[in-house]
Write a structure and sequence with these properties.
This protein is flat. It folds into three domains: 44 residues, Pemi-like Protein 1, Chain: D (Ribbon), CATH 2.10.260; 67 residues, 2-Layer Sandwich (Translation Initiation Factor IF3); 170 residues, Phosphate transport system protein phou homolog 2, domain 2 (Methane Monooxygenase Hydroxylase, Chain G, domain 1), CATH 1.20.58.220. The protein is α+β, with helices and mostly antiparallel strands. Helices cover 60% and strands 13% of the residues.
């Protein structure tokens, strides 16, 4: 292990030098790009040109629409850079594959012939950025639910459907990026725990988005009939935000407060039992993360 001092450059920029032995071992020169994987308490650095492209090939044996969608979703989350799909492809089938690809962030068909289709994955987004956007989407869904019911406006409630689709796409991207990270060099079990914990958070958020969508569909028929649930909905929003803040800030005490509040919500109304359980799960992950970071510095 080496220790390096952080230096202040200019008014607001910081710099830390890299070991010359590492620079030489990786044949790096001035101007070469480095990739940084940034987490709450550590940064992993590797040369951009040292990550080999992950490629694969597979034969498509079924062509019905439902299987095709699941098949392409499964390819997407594997974390590969390029996949050659072999089979018998008609123009109509290629169009269906294009429709599925448009629903997945970063998936593109770069070559399509009668006997093969080449899929390329071009999304390069940090896992933490995806989770942050999922937090924002679920928070916005709660805001629209509250506003739509309070003002008796179905339009806001129907907007939730668009956000739910975005949440689904981002969840798939989170799974994909998590699998990519697991394939790369990791700092042992700590890195593994961090990635798996983030995957669990992404799943809780995707489930919450689905539940808020279902609630919005019911409420959009007659928003005023759900006005008696407004106080509870506001409490759900408050507890959710507390769980999110606990996760982001690594605050164990705040996470415990969110867990207890979610448990109380579970007893309050059947409409929000499942939602409250998901928020409680989010709080539990936040608590585990905070404790792990405090003890292990992960």
């Amino acid at each position: 292990m080496e220790i390096r001092k952080l230096q202040l450059i200019g008014g607001s920029s910081y710099m830390v030098s890299l070991p010359k032995s590492w620079i030489d071992a990786n044949s790096l020169q001035k101007g070469d790009e480095l990739i940084l994987h940034i987490d709450s308490n550590h940064i992993r650095i590797h040369p951009r040109n040292r990550i080999p492209a992950l490629k694969g090939s597979i034969k498509l044996k079924r062509y019905d629409s439902s299987f095709l969608k699941r098949f392409m979703h499964s390819l997407y989350v594997q974390g590969l850079d390029e996949v050659v799909v072999e089979g018998s492809f008609t123009p109509e089938l290629i169009t269906k594959m294009s429709d599925v690809a448009r629903g997945l962030i970063g998936m593109e068909i770069i070559d399509a012939k009668s006997d093969r289709v080449v899929l390329k994955f071009i999304a390069e987004v940090e896992l933490g950025e995806i989770i942050n956007r999922l937090f924002q989407i679920v928070s916005t869904m709660l805001h629209l639910l509250e506003k739509g019911i309070e003002e008796n406006r179905s339009r806001e409630l129907l907007e939730v459907a668009k956000l739910e689709r975005d949440a689904d796409r981002l969840y798939m991207l989170a799974v994909r990026q998590g699998n990519r990270l697991l394939r790369e060099a990791c700092s042992g079990r700590l890195c593994l725990r961090s990635i798996l914990g983030t995957r669990v958070v992404a799943k809780h958020l995707e489930d919450l988005a689905d539940m808020f969508y279902d609630f919005a569909v019911k409420a959009s028929v007659s928003p005023q009939n759900f006005s008696d649930l407004l106080p509870l909905l506001r409490e759900v929003k408050k507890v959710f935000e507390k769980a999110v803040n606990a996760y982001v800030e690594g605050d164990a005490e705040m996470a415990e407060e969110a867990i207890k509040s979610a448990e109380q919500l579970e007893k309050a109304n059947g409409e929000f039992v499942c939602i409250s359980r998901q928020i409680r799960g989010l709080g539990e992950v936040a608590l585990n993360k905070a404790v792990r970071e405090s003890i292990l510095g992960d």
